[in-house]
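User: I'm writing a tutorial on reading structure tokens. Could you give me a worked example: one chain, its sequence, then its tokens, then a sentence or two explaining what the tokens reveal?
Assistant: Sure. Here is the example chain.
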Amino acid sequence: MRYEFKSSFDRRFKKLSPERQRKVYSAIDAFLKHVDGETPLTPGLGLKNWHGEYWEIRSTVKDRILFEFTDRINFLFVGNHDEIKNFMKSR
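And here are its predicted structure tokens:
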């Protein structure tokens, strides 16, 4: 499966602490391994459909990773629940 990190994701990601960045990448890695059929879905990821093609996974109790799942996975945003909600209002 092809994937891409959008500029909106990159801007938010750069503002995270190194520890939070590692947890985000770890969650993304686990999710992509599941999509590629390498591993079962880790329950801690909390995969959730927002609406239509928009989905989220958790990297920590607070942090969420928003992505669009079409012919590829577009990682759109990383933040807490309220920040994701505000980001989705602009879409």
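What the tokens reveal: The radius of gyration is 12 Å. Helices lie at 7-14, 18-35, 81-89.
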